[in-house]
Design a protein that fits this description.
This protein is α+β, with helices and mostly antiparallel strands and 290 residues long. It folds into 2 domains: 4-171, Four Helix Bundle (Hemerythrin (Met), subunit A), CATH 1.20.120; 177-288, Alpha-Beta Plaits (2-Layer Sandwich). It is 55% helix and 10% strand. The chain has helices at residues 4-35, 44-68, 79-83, 92-110, 115-118, 120-127, 129-145, 151-170, 173-187, 209-213, 237-246; strands spanning 195-199, 218-220, 225-229, 231-232, 252-257, 260-263, 284-288.
Length: 290
Amino acid sequence: MQDPQHGVYLVVTAVGFSALAMLWLGLVAGLVLRDGRAIDRIRPATLASLHRTAVSCGLTLAVVHALGQLAVPSSEVRVIDLLIPFLHERTQFGVGLGVVGLDLMFMVAGSVALRRFAGYTRWRFVHRLGYLAFALLLGHVCAVGAGTYHVAVIGPIVVIGAGTIALGLATAGWVSRLPHRVRDLLAEGRWGRRVAVHVDATRCVHFGFCQHEAPDLFELRDDGRLDHASTARANQIDAAIRAARACPTRAILLSRRAGRVVFANPGQDEDEVPSPPGGSEEGSGEHAVA
């Protein structure tokens, strides 16, 4: 007859792998939402909902996995081991990585509630710690499972997880935009020009980060509509670019003239982007938030 403790161990382990899979799905959804290239095929609200739901389910399963270790006598996990990292006697390093990674992931998730108070720049810095948290959880799987699971189980998990983290860091928006920003600064004399401001209502999802970065150019009204200036003066260009970069759905387009773009949507050739509708040098625009 099979040992009941072994059955509990298998259930707890399965819950742990399920938690890792859901956190990975949430990470991928966040990467797709940030990159913006799939926005035309998938609604931003759908991606954001998938991101939140997957991470929430992953964190819940991770807590169940951690508490379930208390019911497995062979794991020798104590309550204090789940609160203070690196105290477990047998697998001190592996369990410690899991505790630190889970605590960090909860901190990243909790920061979402404070993003409007902290501002997009600070919140984005904290939110990017999710990459580190996921890497620590991968290290937990490797360290704890090295002597338990077959390499055929651990290998693909580590490769897929590490590849996802590397892809997220390699596709960071500021990396791909830096050459274009330097070229524009040197060749076009951007600082002495006015910049036209256009907001794509089909992409905007009412996050309000643009207003925080450039309150003189953007105002999110209580009725769910966004007022924005149609042009940014030379001393407002920095704020306009910060607002465009802060928009997670890349709904803000800044252009100097037809065919020349200061900040465009990812994957769009800046020589093919038309000037924003209207074309007036002064005034304000308004659109309903999707």
